[in-house]
């Protein structure tokens, strides 16, 4: 884990799992764009301590566990202001809100696995706002929904675009068996929209800082299109969700030995089915009180 300069006062914390950007103010205060997993908190805090840095604000791209996992902690321990898109803030402010994301889990299981995500935002960004001032620094906001309902990209005052999970590097795409998107149809629209984004540098949460992103956008789009085709190839005759999910798990060679891993595979598979329905390649039928997916 280390800190890397991107441009001007924009830096990133490079962990084994992700890149976490931050903008440095005077006196060692920093504005973080996302704040990482709880499992990486100790390493992040050690880095900040060595460099004399203090989280003064967290500007979240979206409300997923690797992006706001430490938000409540930084809010409590450092007084950091938490700033989120209004939709993402509604998801993160309670276990009931998180249930909209983890809909098939009981509240007790959500608390067990994701309770550290619960945080009340100090400031909420409206869906149509295009900038936000944080501790005197102006950040541009670009709506890129799809990976999550209210996902945003954040441009620091150095014109560094922090893309969050809208795009992944080609290395990450190549090593990932499956990736999640809340609405793939909308996500692909947002990915295409980034072709016109003018920035000096780009930071992808997964992973790294880049001079340009136009060359990797097609690969990101193709990844989800290919993933959907893969699932479609597993459907020859009408099939129910549980049977299809079992086929997907076996096809991917994934071992599912916990409720958390089962939920993860389920959450990644359903959007692919919805994308296939959206694009007219799949439909749902009810037969004898059971739902089947049919080509």
TrEMBL record:
This is Glyoxylase-like metal-dependent hydrolase (Beta-lactamase superfamily II). Coiled coil: none annotated. Residues 19-206 form the Metallo-beta-lactamase domain. Pfam families: Lactamase_B. Keywords: Hydrolase, Metal-binding, Zinc. Its cofactor is Zn(2+). InterPro entries: MBL_Glyoxalase_II (IPR051453), Metallo-B-lactamas (IPR001279), RibonucZ/Hydroxyglut_hydro (IPR036866). It comes from the Bacteria.
């Amino acid at each position: 884990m280390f800190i890397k300069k991107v441009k001007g006062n924009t830096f990133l914390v490079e962990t084994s799992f992700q890149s976490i950007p931050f903008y440095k103010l005077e006196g060692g205060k920093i504005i973080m764009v996302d704040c990482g997993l709880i499992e990486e908190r100790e390493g992040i805090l050690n880095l900040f301590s060595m460099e004399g840095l203090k989280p003064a604000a967290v500007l979240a791209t979206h409300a997923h566990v690797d992006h706001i996992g430490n938000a409540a902690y930084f809010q409590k321990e450092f007084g950091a202001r938490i700033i989120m898109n209004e939709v993402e803030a509604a998801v993160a402010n309670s276990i009931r809100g998180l249930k909209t994301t983890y809909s098939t889990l009981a509240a007790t299981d959500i608390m067990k696995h994701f309770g550290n995500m619960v945080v009340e935002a100090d400031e909420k960004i409206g869906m149509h706002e295009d900038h936000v001032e944080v501790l005197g620094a102006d950040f541009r906001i670009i709506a890129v929904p799809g990976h999550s309902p209210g996902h945003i990209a954040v441009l620091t005052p150095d014109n560094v675009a922090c893309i969050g999970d809208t795009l992944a590097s080609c290395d990450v795409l190549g090593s990932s068996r499956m990736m999640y998107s809340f609405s793939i149809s909308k996500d692909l629209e947002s990915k295409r929209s980034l072709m016109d984004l003018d920035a000096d540098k780009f930071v992808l949460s997964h992973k790294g800082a880049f001079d340009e992103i136009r060359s990797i956008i097609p690969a990101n789009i193709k990844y989800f299109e290919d993933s959907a085709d893969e699932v479609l190839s597993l459907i020859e005759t009408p099939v129910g969700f549980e049977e299809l999910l079992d086929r997907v798990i076996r096809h991917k060679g994934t071992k599912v030995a916990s409720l958390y891993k089962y939920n993860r595979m389920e959450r990644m598979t359903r959007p692919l089915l919805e994308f296939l329905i959206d694009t007219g390649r799949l439909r749902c039928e009810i037969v004898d009180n059971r739902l089947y997916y049919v080509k």
